[in-house]
Amino acid sequence: MEFLRNWSWTAGSAAHILEGSQSTICGPPPFIRREHSVSVARILEDARELHGDIVQLRHDLHRHPELGLQLPRTQEKVLAALSDLPLEITLGKGLTSVGAVLRGTAGDPSAVDRPTVLLRADMDALPLQEETGVDFASETPNRMHACGHDLHTSMLVGAARLLAERRHQLAGDVVLMFQPAEELLAGAPMMIEEGILELSGRQADAAYGLHVFSAGGNTGRFETKAGVMMSAADALFVTVIGRGGHGSAPHQAKDPVPVLAEMILGLQHMVTRQFNAHDPVVVSVGMIKAGEAINVIPDTAEFGASLRMYSDEARAKMQTAIPRLLNGIASAHGLEVDINYHVGGRVTVTDEAHTAFAAEQIHELFGAERHHSLPAPLGGSEDFADVLARVPGSFICLDATPLAGGPDAAFNHSPRATFDDSVLVDGTALYTQLAVARLAQLAAA
């Protein structure tokens, strides 16, 4: 990404292109001049006033989901929703990301040490055929917002509006990070490479992300956890190489199938015997492929597995323990094995102080009863971990179980997963409050 600091606007201007850059400044509309209190009650009240607009955007994004790094329509909709705000817009080069800087005008705008807070929302969908039956269901075959990223995007757009109304009370800058390809665990690293963390002109001082969940039964409840919050995610692809033959004469072949089965069981034994139960590792084999006929021993057999770890130490150990085990089993049976270990997303680790701060803002906005501290890490993975590895911050979960869903509500990534629109106000307000309160603290430090 590219960024330039020098910009100006004049009355009647809709947008300005920064010299030597593709960044755009969108001129502030008249409503920006209204006086707004930064009080918690007013933030929540203003978020409620935006509810209809946020819902409309969310439903539009849900109808037209896009996958991976290239989300051209989604990017277009986000840009349109932000077009009348006083933002410095930077578009991604290798992906259809949107980075936006809101310059607070309180304090000394020329100070080089003005604080910056980053807020992130992911935008991509999943390759699923939607089965929810909602009236705004996906209109694209085998594409679905089944992980709530349409809610995240809409809430951050809403927060951009609330923050723009309060920019004269912000003694610092806010970076809005609209990210593709979270489901590939690829978007955040690419945006970091393109400069999102320094988009305001200096390294962000704090970063916050939010994620909704479609099941849990506590609609509107926020959940946080200090320290290790989500797992690292690696992938394992294994091909056992034998020699095919007739099913009636296995002694004349080198059957890879029982060797594959032994490897799969061996991985489970390895996890329980070689790894600390208090630093867990999860190996889930989700793909097995071998042969086409019951009376033919195939030349090869394959399996693939998802690997989850909660520490860098366990992850490093997996990368040596797995090849040792699989090579040993193959050798014992006189076969060969091809092992492909793919390193994915890192462990998500939140900052203790920033997580406590996030909990405080939840209490201020909604009351202590709307907050829950997670007793253990979650099993999923997040590429926001790459942001938190470089900038202190936190990641907040929001229960969006449909109010009419009951205990059988489908979880994220299900073709039947639905999310309650009522939480859009909550997420919008929390994004806003996190930026407002954190900038105030940083400016006063």
End-to-end C-alpha gap: 30 Å
The CATH superfamily of the largest domain is identified as: Zn peptidases
CATH class of the largest domain: Alpha Beta
**Cα gyration radius (Å):** 25 Å
Quote the CATH topology of the largest domain: Aminopeptidase
Helix content: 25-40%
β-strand percent reads 15-25%
Number of helices: 10
Give the overall average pLDDT. Answer: 91
> Sheet bearing the most strands, described?
10 strands, mixed
Low-confidence stretches: 1-22, 24-37
Described by the principal axes of the CA atoms, the overall outline is elongated
Spatial strand sequence of the major β-sheet: 1-2-3-4-6-5-7-18-8-17
What is the CATH architecture term of the largest domain?
3-Layer(aba) Sandwich
Structural class: alpha+beta
Organism: Pseudarthrobacter psychrotolerans
Cofactor: Mn(2+)
Binding site for Mn(2+): 147, 149, 183, 211, 413
Pfam families: M20_dimer (PF07687), Peptidase_M20 (PF01546)
Describe the structure.
- This protein is an alpha+beta fold and 445 residues long.
- It folds into 2 domains: 40-230 and 347-443, Zn peptidases (Aminopeptidase, 3-Layer(aba) Sandwich); 232-344, 2-Layer Sandwich (Alpha-Beta Plaits).
- The chain is built from 10 helices and 18 strands.
- The strands form 4 sheets. The protein has a 10-stranded mixed beta sheet with strand order 1-2-3-4-6-5-7-18-8-17, with helices on both faces. Strands 12-14-10-15 form a 4-stranded antiparallel beta sheet, with helices on one face.
- Helix 4 (149-165) crosses helix 10, helix 6 (256-274) packs antiparallel against helix 7 (312-332) and helix 8 packs across helix 10 (423-444).
